[in-house]
Amino acid sequence: MKKILYAVSLSLLSVAVLAACQNTGTTAQSANPQSAQSVPSAAEPVLQISTGKEQQGWTVTTLMSHPARQTVQTPDDPAYHQPRQWQAVPLHALLPSLKAGGHTQFKASDGFVATIADDTLLSAATPWIAFETAAKPWPALGAGKPSAGPFYLIWTDAARGNISQEQWPYQIASVAPVQSLTERFPALLPAASAPLKEQALRGLQAYSRHCSVCHTLNKAGDASIGPDLNLPHNPTEYFQEKMLRQLIRDPASVRTWPQQSMPGFSKEVLSEAELDDLLVYLKQMAAQR
Ligand code: HEC
Questions:
Q1: Domain coordinates of the chain in residue numbers?
Q2: Are 200 and 75 in contact (CB under 8 A)?
Q3: Non-local CB neighbours of 229 within 8 Å, separated by 6+ positions
Q4: What kind of fold does domain 12-178 have according to CATH?
Q5: How confident is the model at residue 37 (pLDDT cuts 50, 70, 90)?
Q6: What is the CATH architecture assignment of 182-286?
Q7: What is the reported pLDDT for 24?
Q8: Residue 147: which of 126, 165, 130 has the closest Cα?
Q9: Most buried of 60, 164, 170, 287 (most Cβ within 10 A)?
Q10: Is the peptide bond before 169 cis (omega within 30 degrees of 0)?
């Protein structure tokens, strides 16, 4: 595949991307302007995709002319909850460096950060970068809110890959290889001496998948949407267990306000056993700060 490196325009988004890239150890400046073959217009948002060795900026225009672009249909998705048709390029065509055992991080412009195992990205389900075109804008995510665009990670055959709602990051600004969450943030690990260590470790898995995309714990993690779940105090300390369970299942059934944004986790998404494990993990972490 022909590699095109773009000089990054000084649009607001690029500035945001630059800031985001500082955390991943790569910078947008590593795209060598000398080798730029085409420069996107300043108004066009850029999706930065890094293989770890090199970084490439994609715009809606360049994705539209990608040879692997297709019209893709999904029966349902966490942003719109309805059958939809998308213009999309398979992630594999944009990021050929995916490898078993690796992890890939998707950073959204709103502070949501999903780390997805490459094994999942290479599983029976197929991930695509869907992009929003000016000709067919996507609906708003709610009154007064923007759409899921311009770049959205969607899946075909999602059920076959057991893909959860947090693995559909939207408003993506950058994609890059990273080490696993606990390799980067050992402060998330339950202590070797934890009384229910096995269960706490299973709870950590549920936490990594479903909660770390928005929360930090012990200030460890990538995301910045929800409050830290251990500092200064842990919700297992200030919520009664019954209410904490209810809050995780359906936050609005416990308290409600207009800007509320945490999604609920149904039994289909987070089984009763997984919720038990998650609470064991959170309680353990209350003893580790
Ligand atoms: C999409 C982002 C998102 C995800 C995913 C998410 N949360 Fe939240 N969470 C929030 C936000 C934002 C708040 C603040 C309240 C609000 O706006 O809903 C919050 C609030 C909370 C609170 C209340 C804290 C307090 O002191 O009021 C708890 C407890 C909590 N989350 C636990 C979890 C757990 C456990 C998970 C994983 C199963 C999770 N959250 C997943 C965004 C998220």
A1: 12-178, 182-286
A2: no
A3: 211, 215, 216, 217, 235, 282, 285
A4: Sulfite Oxidase; Chain A, domain 2 (3.90.420)
A5: very low
A6: Sandwich (2.60)
A7: 35
A8: 130
A9: 170
A10: no
State the pLDDT confidence band at 34, using cuts at 50, 70 and 90. very low
Any idea which of 25-34, 175-184, 204-213, 244-253 has the lowest mean pLDDT?
Answer: 25-34
Residue with tokens 């064991």: 280
12-178 against 182-286: fold identical = no
The DSSP bridge partners found for residue 36 are: 5
What percent of the chain clears pLDDT 70, i.e. is strictly above it? 85
Strands (E), the chain: 47-50, 55-58, 70-74, 84-90, 103-108, 113-117, 126-131, 151-156, 172-178
pLDDT at 26: 32
Supply the pLDDT for residue 20. 38
From atom 14 of ligand 1, which residue's Cα is the shortest distance away?
A: 226
pTM: 0.82
Q: Which residues line ligand 1 (CB under 6 A)?
A: 166, 210-211, 213-215, 225-227, 229, 235, 247-248, 251, 260-263, 265, 278
Q: Are 171 and 140 in contact (CB under 8 A)?
A: no
Task: Determine the distance separating the centroid of ligand 1 and the alpha carbon of 166, expressed in angstroms.
Answer: 13
- List the helix and strand counts (H, then E) for the chain: 9, 9
The per-residue pLDDT of the chain, averaged, comes to 87
